[in-house]
């Protein structure tokens, strides 16, 4: 069995999520990790010991990790504002990489990475994990099989408790900087990609409102937002996101896709998909999922290692997808600031 040595670039929250996923993939082994902050090496080492493994080598110099012959692929999890030059250096090395999303804070940064990847012939896959989550894969399968006819309307809700977000990104984290959009790009970009992918269509326009809330008890920034997206294929997609709630009301996510035949595909949390059809009543698909599998991280990393790194296939998710979803998330911020509907080219 081929085994790929993985180097982690960035040792924060998402490096831990990927490590959990990778520890369950026999073809992958984390052999190296880079953070320019040595104190993160110590904390990360304590974390991996609990997972049952130790990273062989920690680096404070990214170039040295990229020169390590044991590193066959890289997972890059750096905040959008700082990721550009770091992802650029990884791409320049020619090693295949997953870059967490958004892989830049502007569409221009992503275009530059894309151009570099093309010049170097490097395989770069933006981490749009929702495409790999069992509940969304099943939903897409049902739509593509025509079970509800053409989709006409989608309602998607994702409410994350404020205290969970504060544990994930404590006071002072980059994500609470409202000037840079606060948590909105990170907390919406995955759904934006999901919408384009599920509907096989591109957005025409987007209107959004955001209610911001200082949360002094956590030192974080709450948000509750609603947006309406019109797609070229005529579908209206409505989102409600919140990171201000005390506790999740029901499942953390609910997606309802209404079809032209009156049926509906509903993802009721990540563990259940229901097909409602007038004629046959209702069918259910339950998923028994461990933590890195709920939102697609394990399946995504497994696909990357087996198909992209070992199988040398072109990734199914491209940097241009990440650019389009970032543009939609930035449109949420712009629309909520200006009160106007944003139109896409
Ligand atoms: N796929 C998902 O489900 C998901 C979920 C959350 C976050 N994300 C994305 O993952 C990426 C990373 O987020 P995170 O939650 O791991 O962040 P984090 O703050 O927990 O960790 C970020 C890492 O980047 C390093 N870093 C920060 N600024 C740096 C700089 N200027 N130079 C070098 N290193 C720097 C930090 O030291 C740390 O190791 C973001 O793009 C975020 O949007 C994805």
Give a structural overview:
37% of the residues lie in helices and 29% in strands. By secondary structure, the chain is α/β, with parallel strands linked by helices. The protein has two domains: 4-129 and 296-316, NAD(P)-binding Rossmann-like Domain (Rossmann fold, 3-Layer(aba) Sandwich), CATH 3.40.50; 131-287 and 326-343, 2-Layer Sandwich (Dihydrodipicolinate Reductase, domain 2). Strand 13 and strand 14 form a beta hairpin. Helix 5 (107-120) packs antiparallel against helix 10 (319-338). The longest helix has 20 residues, at 319-338. The protein is globular, with a radius of gyration of 20 Å. The site of nicotinamide-adenine-dinucleotide has 23 residues, from helix 1 and helix 4.
Reconstruct the topology from this structure:
Elements: E1 4-9, H1 13-22, E2 28-34, H2 38-51, E3 57-59, H3 62-67, E4 73-76, H4 80-93, E5 97-100, H5 107-120, E6 124-127, H6 134-144, E7 151-161, H7 162-168, H8 184-199, E8 203-215, E9 220-231, E10 236-245, E11 253-259, E12 264-268, E13 272-277, E14 281-286, H9 297-310, H10 319-338, E15 342-343
Helix pairs in contact: 1-9, 4-5, 5-10, 6-8, 8-10
The structure holds nicotinamide-adenine-dinucleotide.
Residues 10-14, 35-37, 40, 77-80, 82, 100-102, 127, 129, 173-174, 186, 295 line the site of nicotinamide-adenine-dinucleotide.
């Amino acid at each position: 069995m081929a085994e790929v040595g993985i180097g982690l670039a960035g040792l924060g929250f998402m490096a831990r999520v990927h490590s959990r996923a990778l520890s369950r993939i026999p073809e992958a082994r984390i052999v190296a990790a880079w953070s320019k902050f040595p104190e993160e090496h110590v904390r990360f080492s304590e974390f991996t010991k609990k997972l049952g493994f130790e990273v062989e080598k920690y680096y404070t110099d990214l170039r040295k990790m990229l020169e390590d012959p044991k590193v066959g692929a890289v997972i890059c999890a750096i905040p959008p504002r700082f990721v550009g030059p770091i992802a650029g250096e990884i791409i320049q090395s020619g090693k295949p990489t997953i870059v967490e999303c958004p892989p830049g804070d502007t569409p221009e940064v992503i275009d530059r990475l894309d151009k570099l990847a093309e010049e170097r012939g490097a395989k770069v896959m933006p981490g749009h994990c929702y495409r790999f989550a069992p509940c969304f894969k099943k939903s897409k399968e049902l739509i593509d099989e025509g079970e509800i006819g053409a989709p006409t309307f989608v309602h998607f809700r994702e409410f994350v408790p404020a205290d969970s977000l504060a544990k994930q990104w404590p006071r002072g984290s980059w994500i609470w900087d409202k000037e840079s959009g606060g948590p909105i790009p990170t907390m919406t970009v995955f759904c934006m990609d999901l919408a384009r992918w599920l509907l096989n269509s591109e957005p025409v326009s987007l209107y959004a409102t955001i209610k911001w809330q200082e949360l002094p008890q956590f030192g974080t920034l709450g948000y509750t937002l609603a947006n309406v997206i019109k797609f070229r294929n005529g579908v209206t997609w409505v989102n409600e996101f919140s990171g201000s709630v005390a506790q999740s009301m029901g499942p953390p996510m609910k997606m309802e896709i209404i079809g032209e035949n009156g049926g509906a595909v509903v993802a009721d949390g990540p563990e259940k998909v229901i097909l409602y059809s007038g004629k046959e009543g209702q069918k259910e698909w339950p998923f028994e999922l461990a933590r890195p599998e709920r939102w697609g991280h394990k399946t995504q990393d497994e696909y990357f290692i087996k198909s992209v790194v070992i199988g040398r296939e072109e990734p199914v998710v491209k940097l241009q997808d990440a650019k389009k979803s970032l543009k939609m998330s930035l449109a949420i911020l712009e629309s909520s600031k200006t009160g106007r509907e944003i139109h896409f080219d």
